[in-house]
Specification:
Strand order of the largest sheet of chain A: 5-4-3-6-17
Number of helices of chain B: 9
Shape of chain B: globular
Structural class of chain A: alpha/beta
Strand order of the largest sheet of chain B: 12-11-10-9-13-14-17
Shape of chain A: globular
Radius of gyration of chain A: 23 Å
Distance between the termini of chain A: 20 Å
Largest interface: A-B, 46 and 43 residues
Radius of gyration of chain B: 18 Å
Number of strands of chain B: 17
Largest sheet of chain A: 5 strands, parallel
Strand content of chain B: 25-35%
Helix content of chain B: 25-40%
Oligomer: heterodimer
Chain lengths: 489, 272
């Protein structure tokens, strides 16, 4: 059966039909979209606990009624890992929450993570019939996904996805971030003997070192990793392929397929005077200290500078994570400095909203041109060039233009540069035969994610140069499907 | 987890640890470093590998007690485990036959110099080692360095051993005496700065192995960035060795002080 036929057959099951008949479409569309419970903004800007608190069972079941169980659901095609969204939502509607969680796990290795960090408004929810045709707020697919995953975890009745009989074929995964975990989950389901190699001392990649606790608690990530372990996936930390073990070693040890998901690498800086002063650092460094190394915990050996006036340069999700972290670490003034206007910001709307509620200042149409330090080399001030919006540039966004002479100087004692990263150089440098782009990304066939070396596939930021968790997961899934096909040829 | 199988005190504050790390022992090359962590709340700290034994599957690290993390590491004993260790990291030393090479090592910088001196010697170079320390009891690995060197000059600040004077005095004397083709220097940043200034005056190519602050050490955080030839470079993946004459040592020294105040506060905390 094709994918479409399977979806149709599932939709035609009696229980789905009965649910559809049980309530008129009008009654469903008249319901208002559920609101996410959140920690109070003032309270949460001083703690590290999760901001979004989730839905109640009743709220979730009511929200699930809004879904019309469309015959041609757009939401599924809007999802990079093609979760059967109507099926999981209808399971919530009928109160079979554990079944809903199982549905999520059919295609997603990390549902509790995706329910928290995916930009649903640009994916599944954008393709929802409410958004597309009814001019209403979409079904809260992301909130429901999170609800089902959390419900299952808290129930203590975690289901382990069905795993095909072991085929004895060894597969190596380089990097344990979202791309690698998604790939590993799919390959384990197909019966492969999967080992994930991680350079850091913790498993999870950006989910651990990058995304803060208040947006994605580490224990949530750990549960998903445990789930993969129970499917037979093995993990080896503190091991760098190309350094600790060579590519040739892997081949010699019988690994027949290799997936590279080594993620983001060197942070970009602007190359302006004073950028190497003490107190100026990348968001990767700042977030790694706080998230992975727990530097704000007095018992941790890793230090982190605590700023009073903290400027974050950039307007993406990482910039929002950094500025909200700075607020939580006690910054009196936590500022986003962005050279375009708020309309052009790449960050999720929800992150911007949360940051504003937490007292973050937005200095849009400002661009740093110099940092000024004191006699010990600590940053004390920054010079900002004011900008105006000009014609649209290659990205389609209106490009910022300097306003001549409009320069202001403000006091800062910490600056977090969050203007992007280049791919991690370790794998591209140490595996010969890969096709590397000028930007340092691994070039792959976009349909199969296969690299220039037969049997070696890649996905996530090492291919995209900087994207989202879910796009990385989609790459992992696509790579698993095509590697499986390749190995069975 | 990596087991410590041998511990040796070189001096009161300098400890050598031989650690089980078979994969690293097999793949490391002169100039490589590792990142390790002691305890679940431990910091990731970079240390250059002093030596490795492929057959035994061990590497040796030489550590000077300076701050909280290095002290914790020095307190570990034979049979204890290092929580995490990853490597080998960084680009290995570029070894070739150039003629006469001075290996100028100061303090614990002599330890990572050991495999580099050995490699230059094996490549057919004349190797002259200059070892420097504040006083006699801080001179380390002299005998081992001697076995890879055609000549060893020891300099102490107080004259308690070898010649009295700074490392630069020792290096300058050799440069004035004979043709030197390359100087390799490892040690405290301020020492490397002055060695570099000296050799620049004499136009002798010089390589310095830098030990900056790092967090991940795998090319991700940028904490280790320095300016080389006017460009930002990352010690963890572009280094740790650079053309010393192009390194902005003053900036590096400043950046090394980033957490001095915090470290001072930490030291004054009651220990338990």
């Amino acid at each position: 059966m094709t994918k479409e036929e399977i979806l149709k057959a599932e939709r035609d099951e009696t229980w789905r039909e009965q649910l559809r008949k049980g309530k008129k479409a009008k009654e469903r569309t008249d319901l208002q979209r559920v609101k996410m419970h959140e920690q109070d903004a003032e309270v949460r800007s001083h703690n590290n606990k999760e901001v979004n608190l989730g839905l109640t069972l009743e709220e979730a079941m009511t929200e699930a009624q809004r879904c019309l169980d469309c015959p041609n659901p757009g939401c599924i095609s809007g999802c990079p890992v093609e979760i059967n969204i109507p099926k999981f939502i209808k399971n919530i509607e009928r109160g079979e929450i554990l079944e809903a969680a199982k549905t999520l796990k059919e295609t997603s290795a990390l549902p509790a993570v995706c329910g928290r960090v995916c930009p649903q408004e640009k994916q599944c929810e954008q393709q929802c019939v409410y958004t597309m045709k009814l001019g209403k707020e979409s079904v809260a697919i992301g909130y429901l996904e999170r609800f089902a995953a959390d419900y299952e975890r808290e129930s203590g009745q975690m289901s382990v996805p069905a795993v095909a009989p072991a085929n004895g074929i060894k597969i190596a995964v380089i990097g344990s971030g979202p791309a690698g975990l998604s790939f590993a989950g799919d390959m384990a389901k197909k019966g492969y003997d999967v080992t994930v190699f991680e350079a850091l001392h913790q498993i999870g990649g950006v989910l651990k070192y990058g995304i803060p606790e208040f947006r994605l608690p580490n224990h949530i990530v750990d549960v998903e990793i445990e789930n993969l372990k129970s499917m037979g996936v093995q993990f080896l930390t503190n091991c760098i392929i190309g350094k600790t073990i060579s590519y040739d070693d892997l081949k010699e040890e019988g690994f027949q397929g290799i997936f590279v998901g080594s993620g983001a690498g060197l942070p970009r800086f602007m190359d302006i005077p004073g950028e190497n002063l003490i107190g100026v650092m990348s968001s990767n460094e700042y977030l790694t200290r706080v998230n992975l190394m727990d530097a704000a915990n007095p018992a941790s050996d890793t230090p982190v500078l605590i700023g009073k006036n903290v400027a974050i340069i950039g307007g993406g999700n990482t910039a929002m994570d950094s500025v909200r972290t700075a607020r939580r670490l006690g910054a009196e003034r936590a500022m986003i400095v962005y050279r375009r206007s708020e309309d052009e910001m790449p960050a999720r709307i929800e992150e911007v909203k949360h940051a504003k509620e937490e007292g973050v200042e937005f200095m849009t149409l400002h661009n740093p041109i110099e940092y000024i330090g004191d006699e010990k080399g600590h940053v004390r001030q920054m010079k900002l060039q004011k900008m105006a919006l000009g014609e649209p540039d290659a990205s389609g966004r209106r490009s910022p233009v300097e306003i001549p002479g409009a320069i202001e100087t403000i006091d800062v004692d910490e600056v977090i540069v969050s203007i992007g990263v280049s791919p991690n150089p370790l794998v591209p440098e140490n595996i010969k035969g890969l096709n590397i782009s000028r930007k340092g990304t691994i070039i792959v066939n976009e349909d199969t994610m296969s690299s220039a070396i037969p049997g070696v596939y890649a996905g996530g930021d090492i291919v995209r140069g900087g994207a989202t968790v879910i796009l990385a997961m989609g790459d992992g899934r696509k790579a698993a499907a095509s590697m499986d096909e390749y190995l069975h040829q | 987890m990596n087991k410590i199988i041998r511990k040796e005190y070189f001096s009161e504050n300098v400890v050598a640890l031989e650690v089980e790390a078979p994969l690293i022992a097999r793949s490391r090359k002169p100039g490589n470093f590792i990142i390790l962590r002691v305890g679940e709340l431990g910091e990731r700290i970079p240390l250059t590998i002093a030596s490795a034994d492929k057959e035994k599957g061990t590497i040796t690290l030489v550590i000077q007690k300076i701050g909280r993390s290095s002290s914790k590491l020095c307190e570990l004993n034979e049979g204890d485990y290092i929580t995490d260790m990853v490597g080998p990291l960084g680009k290995p030393t570029h070894i070739e036959k150039v003629g006469t090479v001075i290996c100028a090592g100061g303090g614990v910088g002599v330890a990572p110099m050991l495999p580099i001196a050995e490699a230059y010697k094996k490549a057919g170079n004349r190797v002259i080692t200059v070892l420097a320390a504040r006083s006699k009891d801080l001179v380390i690995l002299e005998d081992k360095m001697r076995s890879f060197s055609d000549e060893v000059v020891v300099m102490t600040d107080d004259g308690s051993y070898g010649k009295k004077g700074l490392i630069t005095n020792g290096v300058e004397e050799i440069i004035n005496r004979e043709k030197v083709d390359l100087v390799v220097t490892i040690g405290p940043a301020v020492m490397m700065k002055f060695v570099s200034l000296l050799t620049k005056k004499y136009n002798v190519p010089t390589v310095a192995s830098l030990n900056t602050i790092m967090v991940d050490g795998t090319g991700m955080c940028g904490a280790c960035r320095i300016t080389v030839g006017g460009k930002t470079r990352f010690v963890c993946v572009d280094g740790p060795e650079f053309d010393a004459h192009e390194v902005n040592f003053d900036e590096m020294l400043m950046r090394l002080g980033a957490y001095k105040e915090e470290e001072q506060l930490e030291k004054n905390k009651p220990t338990h």
